[in-house]
Design brief:
The protein is mainly alpha-helical. It is 30% helix and 6% strand. It is built from 12 helices and 8 strands. A two-stranded antiparallel ribbon has the order 1-2. A two-stranded antiparallel ribbon has the order 3-4. Strand 5 and strand 6 form a beta hairpin. The longest helix is centred in the middle third of the chain and has 18 residues.
Length: 398
């Protein structure tokens, strides 16, 4: 526990230090982030889905977000928050956890980890047909070249030819978006009540304190097994602290969301196995089937401000998420319409996580490992992970 607190104190102190001015590259990325000039429709910016006012996550309650040349299409996955991504390790099918607890697929960016950097992930929406819908990067560069302000700044940073060469231009866009998300403290502020609590500047309520104990209890809720607040794998071999994710992939069997059927024409979304990620498809190697249905464990920071949950946006409240985790295999008929684990192909039950608590204690007719009150306490604790907490007047660190 002392190691955890020391690690979080260091992170919090770094985040609370006076922010340095953004570099020219990061400033350019910031301005482009909110500018619809990047979209073919002229009506959509990065901030349209990643709202800065809602911790860089959607501010609406749609399972998937609209886009396209005429804003007539929708994505196939819920849009994640862009906060606390800066420490994600590089993707590996055998990522090691510093605590020695496991080795498996982890790291990378997006729900399926297919991008190796924040900058690379930032380029994807620009040419995705159901997002910003540009036919290619060159079409964006031409619009930027026609904008005197942007053209001057790009050329000053990356040379006179940057907006005339697609490869150079793509690299420049990747760099400015990456710089913005790495440098701007709003993407990783560490200003939640929990951060101030570990620094001795805030006190948890009885419900929050009970929830924290349950959150960490390996024999009960066991949330911390995946959403660790301790030391986990980090970028470039460094360790991460206090991310509330271990950056690993798991198959928890989220129910099918019929609301997005029309947006997923290729059938089941199998996460690491496709359809968006191609290199781990079972068609390439039958052994890859073991990865099917696995999605990145998201951070729980700011989770209480989310409007939809899981990769397909199937749930709209933390209460439903908690109930699902506690009763998935106790009352499966509550969650699945036609068959158990109905968002995966038939016969995929063996791919689902059955080993970790609270799943390990579940079977039809079993007693839930948590009561409704205990679930409420954990939800209360998760509320302490929301950034922007105001320190009570007169509190001093101890």
């Amino acid at each position: 526990m002392r190691t955890l607190l020391v690690a979080l104190l260091i992170v919090a102190d770094m985040a609370l230090a006076q922010a340095a001015p953004l570099s020219p590259s990061a400033s350019l990325g910031r301005d482009l982030f909110t500018d619809p000039i990047l979209s073919a429709s002229g009506r959509q910016s990065c901030a349209s889905c990643h709202d800065p006012a809602n911790h860089y996550a959607p501010s609406n309650d749609l399972a998937v977000q609209p886009g396209g040349r005429h804003m007539e299409r929708h994505g196939i996955r819920a849009v994640p928050s862009l906060t606390y991504l800066d420490e994600a390790p590089a993707f590996s099918t055998a990522l090691g956890n510093p605590d020695g607890s496991e080795s498996g697929p982890g790291g990378g960016f997006d729900w399926d980890g297919r991008f190796d950097s924040i900058g690379a992930q930032s380029l994807m929406p620009l040419t995705t047909a159901y997002e910003m819908a540009n036919p290619d990067i060159m079409s964006i560069l031409r619009r930027l070249a026609d904008n005197t302000g942007y053209a001057t700044r790009f050329r000053a940073l990356f040379g006179k030819m940057v907006l005339m060469d697609e490869k150079q231009g793509a690299k420049a866009l990747s760099r400015v978006f990456g710089a913005y998300q790495h440098e701007d403290p709003s993407f990783h502020p560490y200003t939640s009540k929990y951060d101030f609590y570990v620094r001795g500047l805030a006190t948890l309520t009885p419900a929050e304190a009970r929830g924290m104990v349950l959150f960490n209890d390996a024999e009960r809720a066991n949330c911390a097994a995946c959403h660790t607040a301790g030391v986990g794998p980090g970028r470039d071999g460094a360790l991460s602290s206090g991310q509330f994710t271990d950056f690993f992939f798991r198959a928890v069997g989220a129910p099918h969301n019929p609301a997005i059927d029309k947006d997923l024409p290729e059938g089941n979304d199998l996460g690491l196995c496709g359809p968006l990620r191609r290199d781990l498809s079972p068609a390439r190697d039958p052994a890859n089937r073991r990865f099917c249905g696995q999605f990145m464990t998201p951070t729980l920071r700011n989770v209480a401000t989310r409007h939809v949950f899981f990769h397909n946006g199937v749930f709209r409240s933390l209460r439903d998420v908690m109930d699902f985790y506690v009763t998935r295999d106790i009352t499966p008929q509550r969650w699945y319409r036609k068959r158990i684990y109905d968002d995966l192909p038939s016969g995929a039950a063996a791919l689902i996580d059955h080993d970790d608590m609270p799943f390990a204690a579940q079977h039809p007719g079993a007693r839930p490992v948590l009561s409704q009150q205990e679930e409420d306490d954990i939800i209360a604790f998760m509320g302490t992970l929301t950034d922007g907490y105001t320190i009570p007047t007169g509190r001093k660190p101890h």
